[in-house]
Every structure is written in structure tokens, then in C-alpha cells.
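wait is this the right file?? whatever heres the structure
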């Protein structure tokens, strides 16, 4: 199969990783990636199903790009990958009035050569979406400079079945990749100059390969020569025991900015969400973490307006945010997702109330983020320089071990990938401005 392909990626980092894997598979067929759909012979939308709005956006885009077929010499193929293809399957081909040539689920990308061969043989409306517990993909490393963060998916699927979440139905059962293949992938990235990796999984902290748990995997990945920083996303609270935090404390290359969603401050709502902890247990996990790992910072996810949420429940959520002072948070209004358990329940919180609560929550979280950044003023800290400034040529960007963005002025001997001691002088938005510590 020859020709040019264009991949449009939506949603989470796992999708970005999968798009790199799809790119590798299509290049293996002799196809060439292009950056614009207008230049492509094949367009693949790698989609997200976390909210209805995300799906509607893709359907609109498919209808729009169908216009590229008018007056065009050769065929333009279009296909959908990702969570939407898994959730909707053939229905997606019908909904888009057969503008799509195929739909391929997250466990079926290795079958893309077969799918494209069948389409070349004039077959249409192909839908591949069986789950495959054994499937594994290796993302084609980004061609970008070694700076920045390189994603490595270490798990697929999720068994937590939070009642509002579509992921267990679109990504299948939890399965951990073989440790050897992960370390080999990180070694390949390091050989290309990468110095930071982000280990990905829907519940990455639940990783387990025979006797190796996630703390063990962090140890193996941090031992790869050339890797200076190992970050991970997204963790699940009940995996975070004291042993895990002690392991993080003993591995200086492992990031101490941990993303740990709590979702609601009300035990009644947590139970309805099927989140497997009480808010008391969650907060004890954070306290244990801060005690065991100096400088540990938490970020989180919060949903407001879940069915049955009273003002009192919401006040409990605000109280957790005030007590725990997260460095940042992703905050959402609850929206029912077809196919999930909670979508069967009455969505009884009016949109105006959801929006008003979300507004109060965001205002409070902004104050908490600022409180955490204020604590850094005047402090000396080590940062890893990971990319040039997006704004000023005279500046470099880096991150603290706890994942706070820091900006410093360039120095002839400062290189992307190196660690440097700095003193924080100012706060700019969600970033810190700093100066290099003399003698460093
Ligand atoms: S743990 Fe995360 S991915 Fe898994 S079901 Fe819950 S919200 Fe979804």
C-alpha cells in the first residue's frame, strides 16, 4: 500500500501514544505521513469518547473532510480509531452516512494492513473491534528533538468500573505489558537522546507483571542509562501504599508530582461513583505520601454535579480542595455517558447549578494552586531543562521533580536535558521564574 496518511488525534495521552503506533504500522506498509488532511490519501481519526461533545466534534470533522473527495482524482480513504470506534462500531458508519471506509478498535491496530488490503479489494464498511488481551503496540518514537516528554504505555484497559466512565467498555480489561518490552522501548528512546519518559495507563499504579509491581517497574525504567526523569499518569488512590511512596522517595529520577484523582469529597457520591475509597482514606494516602516523599505535590480530577449531589456534598468537595491544596486540578461538570451505569440514573442536577458549582470550585482551586506556587518563592531547587521557551529565544523551560514548570534565562553552558540549581524569583501564571544559582 503506498500513499500518504494523516492522523488526527483526540483525547488523552494514551491516544497520542496509539497514534504514534499507528504511524509506525502504516510506515511499515510503505506509506508516508503528512501534516495536512488535504495532502492525504488516507485520513484516520483517533478518537475520544469521554464526553458526547468530543464525539460530536469528530462526526462534524468527518462530514467536513468528506468535502475533500469532491473533484479529487484518486480515492481518499477515511477511518475512525480509538474509543469512539469501540463504543459505536458499525453504528458510526451509519451515523456518518457511510462516509467512513472502516472503523478499528483500540485492540485492532495491528490489523490495519489487512483492513487496507480488503478495502483495496473493493470491500466497504469494515469494522474491527474485538478486544484482544494479548495486544501490544510499540509507538514509533517521535522525530522531534530529544527534549520534551516521551510517552510509553505500560498498561491497557481498566477494571475499576467507575460508574460514570466509558473507558472499561472502550479499552477493555486491565493488562500490563511485559516489563522487558517496556525497558527495551525506553532504551531505544534513550539511544535517540530522550531523557524523560511518561509511563501511561488508565490506572498505571495498578501495573503488575508477575512479581513486579509498579514501584518495581519505576526502578527498572529509572535505571536505563540516559533517562533523567520518569513520570507517570494516571494513578488510582488505593494503589498508593506507604511502600510505594518509600520506593518513589528512594528513586531520585522518579517524578514527585503525582496525579491522583479523588473526584468528590462526599462518601455518598464516591460510593455512587464506585470509587473504592472513602474521602478519609484518600486524604490519609496524601498525608502518607507527603510524609514519605519530601516535596511531593498532588494534582487531581474532580467531577461536580454527579447525580444526587447536594450542596452539602459539594461543600465536602470544596473542603478537601481547601485542606489538600492541590497544585492543579482537572475539573468537570458531570455529563452522562451512554453505555455507563450512571447514564441510567436521572441526571438530576440542573446545568445552571453544575456551572455555578464548577465556577466556585475553579476559583478556589486557582487560589490553592497559587498558594503552592507562593511557597516556592525564594526557594532553591533543582530543575531538568526540557525545552526551549515557547515565547522568548533567550529563555529555557524546565520542570522541578514535582512537575512545576520553571523558566530561566539561557546560559551558554546550559543544555536541554541537563539539571540545574535555581532560585525562584517570581510567579508567572502557573509557572515560576527563576535565576541560576551561582556556582552551580
Ligand atoms: S479508574 Fe479511571 S479509567 Fe478506570 S474506570 Fe475509573 S475513571 Fe475510568
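ok assuming it is, sequence goes like this
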Amino acid at each position: 500500500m503506498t500513499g500518504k496518511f494523516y492522523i488526527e488525534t483526540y483525547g488523552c495521552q494514551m491516544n497520542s501514544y496509539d497514534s504514534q503506533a499507528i504511524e509506525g504500522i502504516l510506515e511499515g506498509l510503505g506509506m508516508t505521513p503528512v501534516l495536512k488532511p488535504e495532502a492525504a490519501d488516507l485520513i484516520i481519526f483517533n478518537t475520544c469518547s469521554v464526553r458526547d461533545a468530543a464525539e460530536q466534534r469528530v462526526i462534524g470533522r468527518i462530514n467536513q473532510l468528506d468535502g475533500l473527495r469532491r473533484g479529487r482524482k484518486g480515492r481518499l480513504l477515511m477511518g475512525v480509531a480509538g474509543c469512539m470506534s469501540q463504543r459505536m462500531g458499525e453504528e458510526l458508519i451509519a451515523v456518518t452516512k457511510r462516509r467512513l471506509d472502516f472503523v478499528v478498535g483500540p485492540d485492532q491496530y495491528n490489523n490495519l494492513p489487512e483492513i487496507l488490503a480488503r478495502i483495496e479489494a473493493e470491500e466497504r464498511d469494515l469494522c474491527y473491534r474485538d478486544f484482544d488481551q494479548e495486544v501490544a503496540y510499540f509507538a514509533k518514537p517521535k522525530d522531534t528533538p530529544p527534549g520534551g516528554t516521551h510517552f510509553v504505555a505500560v498498561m491497557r484497559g481498566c477494571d475499576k468500573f467507575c460508574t460514570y466512565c466509558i473507558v472499561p467498555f472502550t479499552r477493555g480489561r486491565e493488562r500490563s505489558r511485559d516489563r522487558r518490552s517496556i525497558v527495551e522501548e525506553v532504551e531505544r528512546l534513550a539511544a535517540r537522546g530522550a531523557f524523560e519518559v511518561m509511563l501511561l495507563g488508565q490506572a498505571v499504579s495498578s501495573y503488575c507483571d508477575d512479581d513486579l509491581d509498579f514501584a518495581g517497574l519505576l526502578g527498572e525504567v529509572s535505571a536505563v542509562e540516559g533517562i533523567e526523569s520518569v513520570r507517570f499518569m494516571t494513578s488510582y488512590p488505593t494503589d498508593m501504599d506507604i511502600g510505594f511512596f518509600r520506593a518513589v522517595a528512594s528513586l531520585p529520577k522518579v517524578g514527585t508530582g503525582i496525579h491522583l484523582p479523588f473526584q468528590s469529597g462526599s462518601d455518598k457520591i464516591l460510593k455512587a461513583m464506585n470509587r473504592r475509597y472513602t474521602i478519609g482514606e484518600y486524604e490519609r494516602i496524601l498525608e502518607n505520601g507527603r510524609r514519605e516523599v519530601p516535596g511531593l505535590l498532588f494534582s487531581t480530577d474532580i467531577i461536580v454535579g454527579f447525580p444526587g449531589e447536594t450542596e452539602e456534598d459539594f461543600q465536602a468537595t470544596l473542603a478537601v480542595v481547601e485542606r489538600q491544596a492541590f497544585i492543579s486540578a482537572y475539573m468537570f461538570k458531570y455529563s452522562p455517558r451512554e453505555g455507563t451505569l450512571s447514564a441510567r440514573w436521572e441526571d438530576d442536577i440542573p446545568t445552571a447549578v453544575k456551572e455555578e458549582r464548577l465556577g466556585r470550585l475553579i476559583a478556589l482551586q486557582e487560589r490553592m494552586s497559587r498558594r503552592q506556587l507562593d511557597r516556592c518563592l525564594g526557594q532553591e531547587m533543582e530543575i531538568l531543562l526540557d525545552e526551549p521557551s515557547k515565547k522568548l529565544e533567550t529563555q529555557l523551560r524546565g520542570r522541578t521533580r514535582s512537575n512545576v514548570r520553571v523558566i530561566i534565562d539561557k546560559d551558554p553552558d546550559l543544555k536541554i536535558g541537563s539539571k540545574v540549581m535555581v532560585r525562584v524569583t517570581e510567579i508567572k501564571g502557573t509557572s515560576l521564574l527563576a535565576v541560576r544559582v551561582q556556582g552551580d
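Residues 3-128 form a domain with the Rossmann fold fold (CATH 3.40.50.2300). so i think its the right one actually
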